[in-house]
Amino acid sequence: MLRTAAAPLVPPVPRVADSDRRRTSASVVLRSVLAHGPVARSTIARLTGLSPASVTDHCARLARLGLIREAAAPLRSGGVGRPHVPVDVDRTRLVVGGVHVAVPYTTVALLDLRGRVLAERRLRHEATEPSRVLERAAGGLAALLDRAADSRPLGVGFAAGGWVDREAGTVVEHAPLGWREVPVRTVLRAHTGLPVHVDGHARALANAERLFGRAGGGRSALHLFVGNLVDAAFATHDEVHHGPRSQAGAIAHLPLAGGTEPCECGRVGCLQAELGERTLCRRAREAGVTDGTDPVRVLDAAADGHPVAVRLLVERARRVGRAVGLLTDVLNPENVVVTELGVVHRPDCLAALRAEVGDARAATVAPTSFPDSVLAVAGGSVALDVLYRDPLGASPELN
Q1: Cβ atoms 155, 388 nearer than 8 A
Q2: At what angle do helices 277-286 and 307-331 cross, to 10 degrees?
Q3: What is the DSSP-derived secondary structure letter of residue 122?
């Protein structure tokens, strides 16, 4: 039989491509609901460029998965025409667990699908041996879930400083804890029975800002995390850069102009040595501000009007501003988000940082969007980023 001119001359698109396209479209729809909800399906179609029929299909699927729900009674535009039923992210049924391992303690938390912390608990380290820390974290999560019996967990996100390999699910190196090649994903999954997703905390917070915070609208953003460890993350066009084996953002040993602090690497003036909380607390002890190793004590002393505590925090903020200037000269981001104790909680520290950055960039620099729950959000956002990138794959048992 002769082939007509209208007959297809190429093979049909493989089913795997159809599946990938369906997953991508589902992600676009869910992200639109997150950004604009409660929102009508017709508006989602206009925002995404998908057909109304496709949007309706995806919304039905996402509703079956428990990710969205109808948000209100049907409304008519001007009282005429077909009613529009807005949909919104469903915050009532599903949660993710978050685990953040810091030097002095582990934070465990439950977050809803909008990244809001529902429950949080800090577990001070009795020992830093990895299996013990992760076992206690799993137990802490289980206790939170027991008190949230009406919620179903989708998975667990894990975040920590240092070198964290997202693809392998391992903490490759966390020097202050003495961790090397720790298979976090495998260990936590064995304890929880849930899918576990792993990332570095600066990248996790960059994704949290992109999804739920101030940096969601820009084309590029830098996140600088300053705690016991100092690291960074850079995002462009909705993607946080990881690099080979997730080594991007390792800035601890970049030199800070004017720095004088000796570093464990043998050099002087490295970012982590200059800006880390250990240095802040040591200087506070030397000045008689505190007698411990908790940087919050320095913040509390400043709030009580202790002039030396104020000076220490403002000087640290200036040095953080110098680090921001170094990084922005290289990366030239539209937005800069800083997670650092003084900058987050004190206007004078934020002003000192912005003054050091300079007038041209000052307005682009902001503190974290999650001042009271930053570590909990860091852990949970690792799992939420996976969900919003592939909502169908995040709940395969319900597809």
Answers
A1: no
A2: 150
A3: E
Backbone torsions φ then ψ of 160, nearest 5 degrees = -160, 165
Strands (E), the chain: 68-70, 75-77, 80-84, 87-89, 94-101, 105-111, 117-124, 152-160, 163-165, 170-174, 179-182, 196-200, 220-226, 230-236, 239-240, 335-339, 365-367
What's the mean per-residue pLDDT of the chain? 91
Q: Are 152 and 94 in contact (CB under 8 A)?
A: yes
CA gap 381, 99 in Å, rounded: 10
Task: Give a three-class secondary structure readout of 59-105.
Answer: HHHHHHCCCEEECCCCEEECCEEEEECCEEECCCCEEEEEEEECCCE
SS3 284: helix
Q: Residue 106's pLDDT is what?
A: 98
Q: What is the pLDDT of residues 231-247, one digit of tens each?
A: 999 999 889 999 998 98
Give, in degrees to the nearest 5, the angle at Cα 230 between 224 and 233: 40
Q: Report the distance separating Cα 110 and Cα 380, nearest Å.
A: 7
CB-side neighbour CA atoms (13 Å) of 24 = 9
Cis peptide before 255 (omega within 30 of 0): no
Q: Quote the CA–CA distance of 324 and 255 in Å, as a whole number.
A: 12
CA dist., res. 200 & res. 195, Å (int)? 17
Contact by Cβ (8 Å): 320, 340: yes
Report CA Rg, the chain: 23
Tens of pLDDT along 169-194?
999 999 999 999 999 999 999 999 99
- Sequence-ordered strand ranges (E) for 190-340: 196-200, 220-226, 230-236, 239-240, 335-339
Output the pLDDT for position 386.
96
Check if the beta carbon of residue 112 is closer than 8 Å to that of residue 211.
no
Spell out the residues 6+ positions from residue 53 whose beta carbon is closer than 8 angstroms to its own.
none
